Amino acid sequence: MGQQPAQFLRDREETTLNKLIDLQHITKAYDSNIVLDDMSLYIRENEFLTLLGPSGCGKTTTLRIIGGFENPDRGQVIFDGTDITHWPPNKRQLNTVFQKYALFPHMNIGENIAFGLRIKNKPKIYIQDKIKYALKLVNLDGYEKRMPDSLSGGQQQRIAIARAIVNEPKVLLLDEPLGALDLKLRQDMQYELIRLKNELGITFIYVTHDQEEALTMSDTIVVMNQGYIQQIGTPERIYNEPENAFVADFIGDSNILDGIMIQDELVELFGARFACVDKGFGENKPVDVVIRPEDVELTPPGRGILQGVVSHIIFKGVHYEMEVTACGFEWLVQSTKMFPVGTQVGIFVDPFNIQIMNKPASEDEEAIGINE
Q1: Is 10 a residue whose pLDDT tops 80?
Q2: What contacts 353, CB < 8 A, 6 or more positions away?
Q3: Whole-model pTM over 0.85
Q4: Which run of H or E residues covers position 255?
């Protein structure tokens, strides 16, 4: 069964296009393992686009095909209107930053940054100006003579980025560049990357399995699974309007329940009927129902649509995270109001906070992520 075209998924959300990279029907397999299956995707100029998904979903292979480190078995890579499918990496107007910084340990910082420029035989004065410019951009002025092993992990990653941007690429490819950093450094570097993208005005293509990174930094997120694109959209749309259960489960926390769509705008959960705003699913049809933990409202028992008991509670700082047992299901609830363990509560959900999606008819459909 073929993939639901990614081009179609994205064109539903916007009509103004400024394509810089256009991946057309890309297929890639290693031996008998198909990593990408007829994938189509475009990337706009000056966009921060994140490829997000679990290990083995095809996101790094996609990045390597864009960068020229892998050739697709089928399909084309179009860059600014030119077919570059079989061009080597050094002929493409892009640079890559990897998780391992790959700084030359025997060179100082200035020499590391200048490496690519010297290969291109750029003038000495030009190179010196570029070194100073790049170090200023990454907030490491005056570090030219330092050696890589004298820098922290976050500083080394900034140098790797500086080395990439001095070559003035149209596109910067980043393959899980923050994965080796601790939490605080990773958060700091997220804001640095956003700042750099805005200042440089170039296209960023970012690979990660970290949902927080994707939601924090991206203009557009591409959620992938098993070689297929599941959904493309803004962080807000991906989080608030997941197109299938995989996306809902992978992006943030979710309560994913088996429901029956009684009719338009009415769904049944555990024998109780909840108003919703979705239409077009038919009558008395099994569906997946997604409700975010922060959208579950706990009420006095008599006021809820379902009745439950608080079975577990954790204080998270900005809110309490509770588990509520109702009808044999453990509801995850996030609230600024605390209900002690053992409290009997009602469960209510605003109709606008209930997301309905078709159940996949087969494992193939589940992998592809079809949800018409």
Answers
A1: no
A2: 291, 292, 295
A3: no
A4: strand 255-263
